[in-house]
Amino acid sequence: MAERINDLYPKRSKIYIGLYIFFIFGAAMGDWKVVNTALGALPKVISVGALGIAVLYILWSGNFKNFKILSRFGLMFSSIIIGIILCSILIWILDLQSLGYIFKGVSKISYQLLNIAIVLAAVYMFEEQAAKYTFFGIAAANFVIILLGAATTGIGGAIRDMIANITSFGANDVINNSTFIRAIEIHDITFVMGVFFLYFVFFCPGEKYRYLYAAVAMFLFFAGLKRIAFLSLFLAILFALFCRLLSSKAQARFLIFIAVSIVVFCYFYIFIIQKGIFSSFLMEHDIELNGREKIYDYISNFYKVSPTYRGRGYEFCVQLLKSMKGTKDQVVAITAVHNDILKMYVEMGFWGFLLWIMGYYVFQTHWFISRCGEKTAVCFMVINVYMLITYMTDNTMFYYWSSMVIRMIPMSFFFAPVKETPLRPIPVYRMNSLEKWRYNRREKDKLTQRKPRMEVE
């Protein structure tokens, strides 16, 4: 029986791996605009199959390996979402909203708890391989969507349009005049490919084909071409490289400093948006906002930057923009805020936003440092530096795939055996200054670098 269980352990079973990739692929195909227009977010339900096969394996084998660690990750991730729900419920009660309105609002954010459960199931089954197999499923869907888009223009036309889009850096006239580019402009998956690029380059030391996977992720990143994501990726790469220069102790202090700085920066960012300074600056420098400034100006009538502002409750901004659609008050055709930092402030209020953002950045960063070690904390923060820039002008904070990978990748990295670049086997007195610096730092950091704080079973 033990051998039977060992043979079918998900981490080594082609059956489980194949099923998981298939479920992720099927769910990601829902991002194809033809399917998305017809069914909306419904295809995402297919990814629940990953949770299903994990539950079936547990019932069949009784294998509860790493459940203690996974429960800690689950509680940490869930606490942020539950905090948003509780804060919103309090706001709705104070605003005397109906039970129907409250239930609808809660359901809008509760799917994130299912997203967390799928992440935990994937890491339970595949441990350090979970992020890689998720990448396989999403990337496969992305390639299929590109091929389906190319069917309308032909391969030659598709290549020409893609080159024109890249060389023009996503100019609106190129996008609007190309059926192919509009078909493959899948926002969530494109942003996620930037995260996978960072993962394979910086945080996947044991993967033999890491640079090949990074190249695939970069190709798909360029294919979708979200302009803000290029700035995000550039800053995240610089951040990752800088963290590599620091000792483990210095990394811990630096990460906490960055987390607190992000909190301060977000309040400053909301202030300059409310005053119109942000939009004016971008317009003066001929940076296309595609109507965002109109949304920001309109929403500024519904909040204030003050400790007395208590918020409007989750999804208020979306409902507000939907309610004005087709009326004389409509400012733009889209009904998304395209600014998650602003959206969370308007909906959570001054103090609710403070609790949320402290929890999201400061608490989670400290948790990763104390429970998982500095290396995993760096992985977490590099990804969140990348995502933070996208939050400032887009709706990525609660995108399905974005939410999944920013949780899964640090967990996969945590479970990966620590591998280090071997140092030259020469006596210390014969090392040059750079080699000696690397050797001394390696010796000081050996304990924190070689095993995580929570021991993997």
Low-pLDDT residue intervals, each spanning 5 or more residues: 1-5
Average pLDDT confidence is 84
Describe the global form.
globular
Number of helices: 21
Between the first and last Cα atoms, what is the distance in angstroms?
21 Å
Oligomer: single chain
Rounded to an integer in angstroms, the radius of gyration calculated over CA atoms is: 23 Å
How would you classify the helix and strand content by structural class? Answer: mainly alpha
The secondary-structure element order is HHHHHHHHHHHHHHHHHHHHH
How would you characterize the overall build of this protein?
The chain contains 21 helices and no strands. It has helices at residues 2-7, 14-28, 33-39, 48-61, 67-94, 99-126, 130-150, 154-167, 172-176, 179-184, 187-202, 210-224, 227-244, 248-274, 277-284, 292-299, 316-323, 340-372, 374-393, 400-415, 433-450. It has three domains: 1-226 and 402-417, no CATH class; 239-393, no CATH class; 420-457, no CATH class. It has 457 residues and is mainly α.
What's the gist of this structure?
This protein has 3 domains: 1-226 and 402-417, no CATH class; 239-393, no CATH class; 420-457, no CATH class. It is built from 21 helices and no strands. It has 457 residues and is mostly helical.
